[in-house]
Design brief:
The structure is a single chain. The protein is an alpha+beta fold. Among the domains are: about 90 residues, no CATH class; about 190 residues, no CATH class. It is about 60% helix and about 10% strand. Strands 1, 2, 3, 4 and 6 form a five-stranded antiparallel sheet that branches. It has a four-stranded mixed sheet with strand order 5-10-9-7. The longest helix is centred in the C-terminal third of the chain and has 59 residues.
Length: about 525
């Protein structure tokens, strides 16, 4: 019933803000346009469509706001007026009252706010779907940012997730592609990431890990956490000074090399994904700034680490091999990798899958990014995958989402950026380090502590293995000896009984002779 009530609320919100008209207006068919006229009868939809869509998503809650944030980066797929309005969802969600924020901070630290901070700005500097941020100054003079979790978020998200689970089950039952797309596993993956985002201590730990990983790369700045002031509902971190990456004109006027910034973004993403297997998975423009400080001029500033993605070594190697094969236009190898990884049935015809992949990807090489729509490429790959029953991998959903964010940012910074040329040298170098002599020496060096511990124990372990190997043979010989002994015993018993019988018969014969004599 609670899920039904939530569904009714969603339908009412859609009708109230005219989101049905916004969705249907993208279609050009006559019958769709006629349907738009019908559904809008009796409703006054005076506000622009982008504003209505933003307000509707805000009304529906954090999950829908997250969807709007991702959609705002795809200016090639949605009208510019809608994208501009949805961009306000990135850090301009209506804040909760300042008095509530102060009360939450004092409750988290168990003392008055003036006992913790020398000053605390009551007006938030940023307000997002999950939390909002206030600037403050610690007693020792350090400038910090205080992130406060929105109250009541867990109940709202749990209700929406319950509805998504229900819809996923229906999709899996009713859709021909439901089983292949694994909607329930995808929703479960999304649920885990959302609940992780509600634990701000986990976000602080993510930031610390990413800061260590990026140390020495000189491309990204990550704020340092004030660990003694980090709780599940409130965290305090180093204040970062930068310009939002969406303010292109301001960055250009400050002298930032936008083309280099775009290339650095691709390098940073590839480093996080393929080298570390740990990447920032919420890279919409509201979470990315650029430093204008002379000491760190032109570097990215990463914010909001509630959602990060992780990849196993197998995932990284599979993706790297696929990218290298794509760059080399070796579509047969791409098809073979899909079969080897189990993404398609083992009886799939390699040549047929190779042809389908070539038809989708070949046309996108040697073209600047502004002429390539990754969304269209993914759509065509999805259509081709239906023919070959390709299974969607839930663990890579976040990576796919982040790739869309990266493309959106790249378009804004440098429409001429050639994504293939920028990423290919990094991936080739990474692959050489993984499978060449350098990779072998690196793995030996990493395993050296284990070898140092195992080598002194090797003679004892070898002796024990030989004993265990010899034990079965000794046991078999002992069993054979015992069996032979039992046969000998039975033979001796038979001889003994025969001798006793002979002696007894002889004695009885002598006694009978005496008695008759």
């Amino acid at each position: 019933m609670r899920q039904f009530g939530r569904l009714v609320f969603i339908v009412i919100t859609v009708l109230r803000f005219g989101l049905d008209e916004v969705a249907l207006s993208a279609f050009r068919q006559r019958w769709v346009r006629a349907l738009v006229r019908v559904v809008t009868i009796g409703r006054r939809l005076d506000a622009p469509r982008g504003e209505r869509l933003r307000q509707g998503l805000e009304r529906l809650g954090p999950i829908f706001v997250k969807f709007g944030q991702v959609l705002s980066t795809r200016r090639d797929l949605i009208p510019l007026d809608v994208a501009d309005e949805l961009a306000r969802l990135q850090d301009n969600v209506p804040p909760f009252p300042a008095a509530t924020a102060r009360a939450l901070v004092e409750k988290a630290f168990g003392r008055p706010i003036d006992a913790v901070f020398a000053s605390f700005d009551t007006e938030p500097v940023a307000s997002a779907s999950i939390a909002q941020v206030h600037f403050a100054v610690l007693k020792d003079g350090r400038e910090v940012a205080v992130k406060v979790l929105r109250p009541g978020m867990l109940d709202v998200i749990d209700h929406d997730l319950a509805l998504l689970h229900l819809l996923a089950r229906w999709v899996e039952r009713l859709s021909a592609d439901g089983k292949r797309l694994k909607p329930r596993e995808v929703v479960a993956e999304f649920e885990g990431y959302l609940h992780d985002e509600l634990d701000l201590v986990r976000e602080a730990a993510n930031a610390a890990q990413l800061r260590r990983n990026m140390d020495g790369l000189d491309l990204v700045l990550v704020p340092e956490m004030v660990w003694e002031l980090c709780t599940s509902g409130v965290i305090v971190m180093q204040r970062m000074h930068g310009v939002p990456i969406s303010q292109i004109d301001r960055l250009r006027d400050a002298g930032v090399d936008l083309k280099k910034l775009a290339r650095d973004g691709v390098t940073t993403f590839c480093t996080q994904v393929f080298r570390d297997g740990f990447f920032h998975a919420d890279m919409h423009p509201g979470n990315i700034q650029v430093s204008l400080d002379p000491r760190t001029f032109g570097r990215y500033i990463a914010l909001d680490f509630g959602i990060v993605g992780t990849l196993t070594d197998n995932d990284k190697e599979y993706l790297a091999y696929n990218f290298i094969a794509f760059f080399q236009r070796d579509y047969k190898r791409v098809a073979e990798l899909h079969v080897e990884s189990g993404w398609v049935p083992p009886d799939t015809r390699i040549d047929a899958l190779e042809g389908a992949i070539r038809a989708v990807c070949e046309q996108n090489f040697d073209r600047p990014l502004k002429e390539i729509s990754l969304g269209q490429v993914l759509l065509r790959l999805f259509q081709a995958s239906r023919r070959f029953n390709v299974e969607i991998q839930p663990q890579l959903v976040l990576l796919q989402k982040t790739l869309l964010n990266i493309e959106g940012l790249g378009r804004q910074l440098d429409p001429e950026l050639d994504l293939w040329v920028t990423a290919k040298p990094f991936l080739e170098r990474w692959m050489n380090e993984q499978i060449g002599w350098r990779g072998l020496l690196g793995r030996i060096r990493n395993e050296a502590p284990r070898y140092a511990q195992l080598l002194p124990e090797l003679p004892r372990l070898l002796h024990r293995a030989l004993q265990q190997q010899a034990a079965p043979r000794e046991s078999a010989a002992l069993l054979a000896l015992l069996a032979e002994q039992r046969r000998t015993n039975r033979l001796l018993q038979a001889v003994l009984w025969a001798a006793l019988g002979f002696v007894a018969g002889l004695l009885l014969t002598q006694a009978a002779v005496r008695w008759w004599g």
